[in-house]
Amino acid sequence: MKKENCLLKEWHEEARKKLKHSLSLGNMMEVPKIMKVVINVGLKEAVSNSKVIGIASNIIEAITSQKPVRAVAKKSIAGFKIREGMPIGVFVTLRGKLMFAFLKKLVDLTLPRVRDFQGVSKKFDGNGNYNLGIKDISVFPEAEASGAMELSSGLNITIVTNSDKDSHGYALLESLGMPFYRK
C-alpha cells in the first residue's frame, strides 16, 4: 500500500477495534470517525494587496495537494474597508485518502516543528469536533518552498467527526496519534 495511506490502513485494521473496546460500544458502526478536515486561512492583508490571495492559495495547495477555494466577503464592512464580494481568504475541505494523508503529516511532521511545542489543547466544541489554530504557516515543510516567507499568516484546522460527544472525539483523535497536552 502507498505510504500516504498508512494512517488510513492503520485506522481500518487496528484503531477502530481498539476504540470500540475502549469506549465500550456494542456495534462497530457506533465507533466515531472523522468526516472531513477543513483548512482555512483568513487574510486581512488581502484588502490592500490582492497578490496575497494567490500566494496563500499556492501554499495551501502545496500543503494539502488540493486546490483551495477563495472565500469572499458576504457583506461590506466600512470599518475594515471590505466590500461585498472581495476575496478575504482561502479554504480547502479534505475527505478520504487526502484527509488521512494530511492528518498523518500534521501529527508526524508539522506539530513537532512548532516552536516550544508542549501538545495541543484538549478543548472540543461540545459536539465532538476539534479546532486547531497554527500561528505560523511556515511550520509546514511544503510552505517554505511555496513562498511562505512572503506571507505572515496562520491557519485554522477544523476536524469534523460524526460523534456528538467530546469524549468520543478526544478518544478518536488520540487513537490517531494527536499529541494532546499532558499536565
Characterization of this structure:
- This protein is an alpha+beta fold.
- It has one domain: 50s Ribosomal Protein L5, Chain: A, CATH 3.30.1440.
- It has five helices and five strands.
- Strands 2-3-1-5-4 form a five-stranded antiparallel β-sheet.
- It is elongated, with a radius of gyration of 18 Å.
What is the element string, with H for helices and E for strands?
A: HEHEEHEHEH
> At CATH's second level, what is the architecture?
2-Layer Sandwich
- Give the radius of gyration: 18 Å
How would a crystallographer describe the biggest sheet? Answer: 5 strands, antiparallel
How many strands? 5
Reading off the top of the CATH hierarchy, the class is best stated as: Alpha Beta
**Largest beta sheet: what is the strand line-up?**
2-3-1-5-4
- The count of helical stretches stands at 5
